[in-house]
Amino acid sequence: MNSVHKLAEADNQLETSSAPALRVARNMAARVVGLTKSYRKNKVEVPVLKGVDLEIEEGKFTAIVGQSGSGKSTLLHLLGTLDSPDSGEVWYEGQRIDCLPARQREHIRNKQFGLIFQFYHLLPELTTLENVMIPRMVECGFFRFWKEKREFKQRAIELLDKVGLSHRLHHKPSQLSGGEMQRTAIARALISKPRLLLADEPTGNLDRQNGEIVMDTLMKLRQDEELTIVMVTHDDEIAESADHVVRLVDGRVA
Amino acid sequence: MYKLLLSWRYLKTRFIALASIVSVTLGVATMIVVNSVMSGFSNEMKSRLHGILSDVEIRASGFNEITDVEHNVQIVKQVLADDLESVTCVVQVPGLLNFSFNEKQFSQPIMLIGIDDESFGDVCEFKPFLTNATNRSQVSFDLRENGYDESLGYAGWDYRREKEENRIAVHRMLGEPLPYDPMYLAQQAAEQAAITGQAEGQTHFVPLPDQVPDLNQLAADNEIMPGTELDRSVTGFSEHSKYMPHEPIFNPMEKQYTGLIMGMAIASRKVIDPEDESNIRDVYLVRPGDDVQLNLFTFGERPVPIAENFTVVDFYSSNMHEYDSSFCFVPLSKLQSLLGLINPSNASRSVTGIQIRLKEGADLDMARDRLSTMFPPEVYMWSIQTWQDTQRPLLSAVNMEVTILNILLFLIIAVAGFGILATFYMIVVEKTRDIGILKALGAPSSGVMSIFLNYGLSLGIVGTSVGITLGLLFVWNINEIAAMIEWMTGQEVFDQTIYYFSEIPTSIEPMMVVFVGLGAVAIAVLASVLPALRAARLHPVEALRYE
């Protein structure tokens, strides 16, 4: 109970503290300042990000492009609090989130961000419907989930219907095609009604046709769910359809 | 929620983990079976060991006597006060038992115990082990008409009379009628009448032997040598005995000697039917109603060998071979007079042991110590022992066996724990990416950890409950299982002639089952802690990148 209260408090704090920040940058959803990150590989430090500044406008579709190894995915991970930067700041809705305690970062990830990966990353033991509901299960305890199960399920089915998978509710990921899996992953990313969708090459592992379906689905949902999208992509066509394009070259914004 | 769901799905889809839990199952089942059988054995053995042994016994060591019995019993009563349930005195001496079977003489050393039939049953578990139903409620040294266990076959007065009738008939046929043969007695009476009356001129002259044996000696001989075949040696005197009209003739048809209750294993032998090995039957050398002879030494400075006839009136069958094969019980007063334990000057009787039963729950060792201080060994030379002291070597051997077996078996379960650890570690490695996904979706490390702890717990519970079920089923049907193994292998699993019991005794102690179960579950959980920690410490980005 206690932890739930704290989380609720953190939520409130997030909203109240974001108000003055929004006045400064009214339509900024997220912002990174002077971000650096390096990985240690066989005792040799490999710098990946060398000071990235970036602003992500609310409600817009930002594409991050760049060559392999330019740090696109790392930037996305840092933005999504999956990893912490060596230096620099990550701001989300007027709050600095990179130095929050783990529990709060987990909560933000769970409630505010939707994540999509290149390799879908569905849980193979669970059905499509269960995979979509997993963020809700992570969020709620056993009893709260049980109480609100009907509501969650309705939302999941609604989302799966929007991504065109209402006929695949009880299939395991191994029984789905790549496109279907990615669309399931989209539904999963949106189940908690996030504000920011972080997508890491969502079409990178799909053929053109399926890639287009996935992109169409995303664009349609973007309207319905009022999403801010940050997408790492290799695909120039997708980059062209974005509101903003950020090009990373050798760990810096070009 | 996801923790339960995922542990459950992992449980359902990963049978390799179930295989790793089989060792826990087997370990738990084995522990339950072994503990149940061992405690069954030791309970049964304890109750049987205890059986004839009183809680505490004061015994004069060797061939010595406790004099001034009443005074000493009073002291015992004062010392033990509220803890005392009842007390009885016994005379316990070694002796040699003689009897005849199939025209051969059998001799066997025995332990003869003179008991007070009123109080002995209150102190020791004695009555329940008798074979006569009436004796089980009221011990008596008189031969019963009937009421003996059917397994004995023919026994009691009916048996004795029929046996004697046969013997009389045999002796008549041999022309050597027995002195109590009614026909012979009638004939003799007629002869006597003829001699005294001189009714007819003819005299039926029967010559006197050259030398008439000492009458007292004869009488004694006659009494100490009963039994069908032994009598034949006596028949030489039987002709003379008719000239001893004042010596009362002992008629076994109507009378018995002093009663004797004999250990079942002295009187019978277990014989395995060569046709059917599972059929074990008892062959009786002696039955209630037969007469036996006891050879004893008197007490005192110059022990004198004496012989006395007794009539077997019942069997004592505690199924404790050590006791059944050596104990014979006779009336205390008879034994005291036989052995010279009655002081001729003041008619006070002495005994060799005082047996004491304490109230339920009384501390045996403390009672023994209190008696020891009252009767210090420096003065009395008595041994004061609880029944557990008497059987100490056996009991402590059993206890040690149980302890060592438990340690070994628990090590088996601990080994199973390492199996679980290895399996779980592999599963965590296999699930690295899933763990990364969960963390990316906001699952805390503790949540990820508890997936695997839950998993270990549920596997432990499944394995343990299956193990407990199997173990209990095994214990409940252990005799059928033993019989089946015997039938399949032809090898006898449980030899009734070796053990004290006719079937494998078991006793399930609920606390033992609970402890074994909790221990096994704890081991399963502990074994999953390490893999779970590894899972919890995984970095989401690296876990997601893991191929």
Read across the widest sheet of chain A, the strand sequence of neighbours is 6-7-8-3-9-10
Major sheet attributes of chain B? 6 strands, mixed, barrel
The proportion of strand residues of chain B reads 15-25%
> Low-confidence stretches of chain A at least 5 residues in length (pLDDT < 50)?
10-25
Percent in helix of chain B: 40-55%
Instruction: Tell the overall outline of chain A.
Output: globular
The span between the termini of chain A is: 48 Å
Report how far apart the termini of chain B are: 27 Å
Structural class of chain B: alpha+beta
Q: Helix/strand-derived class of chain A?
A: alpha/beta
Strand order of the largest sheet of chain B: 2-3-9-4-8-7
* Multimer state: heterodimer
Number of strands of chain A: 10
- Average per-residue pLDDT of chain A, rounded, comes to 82
- Would you identify the regions of chain B where 5 or more consecutive residues have pLDDT less than 50? 223-244
For the CA atoms, what is the radius of gyration of chain A? 18 Å
| Biggest sheet architecture of chain A | 6 strands, mixed
How would you explain this protein's 3D organization?
The complex is a heterodimer of chains A (254) and B (547). Chain A has 254 residues and is α/β, with parallel strands linked by helices. Chain A has helices at 2-24, 72-79, 102-111, 128-139, 142-162, 178-190, 208-225, 236-241, and strands at residues 28-41, 44-57, 61-66, 87-92, 95-96, 113-116, 196-200, 228-232, 244-249, 252-253. Helix content of chain A is 44%, strand content 25%. In chain A, strands 6-7-8-3-9-10 form a 6-stranded mixed beta sheet. In chain A, strands 2-1-4-5 form a 4-stranded antiparallel beta sheet. The longest helix of chain A has 23 residues, at 2-24. The model of chain A is unreliable at 10-25 (pLDDT under 50). With 547 residues, chain B is α+β, with helices and mostly antiparallel strands. In chain B, 52% of the residues lie in helices and 16% in strands. Chain B has helices at 2-13, 15-52, 69-80, 120-123, 133-137, 157-173, 182-197, 215-224, 230-241, 264-267, 321-324, 332-339, 364-374, 377-380, 387-390, 392-430, 432-440, 445-476, 478-489, 510-537, 540-545; strands spanning 56-60, 84-101, 104-115, 258-263, 268-272, 280-284, 291-297, 305-316, 327-331, 353-358, 382-386. In chain B, strands 2-3-9-4-8-7 form a 6-stranded mixed barrel. A two-stranded antiparallel sheet of chain B has the order 5-6. In chain B, a hairpin with a 7-residue loop joins β5 (268-272) and β6 (280-284). The radius of gyration of chain B is 36 Å and the shape is elongated. Residues 223-244 of chain B have low confidence and may be disordered. Classes of the chains: A alpha/beta (254), B alpha+beta (547). The interface between A and B is medium-sized, with 32 and 25 residues.
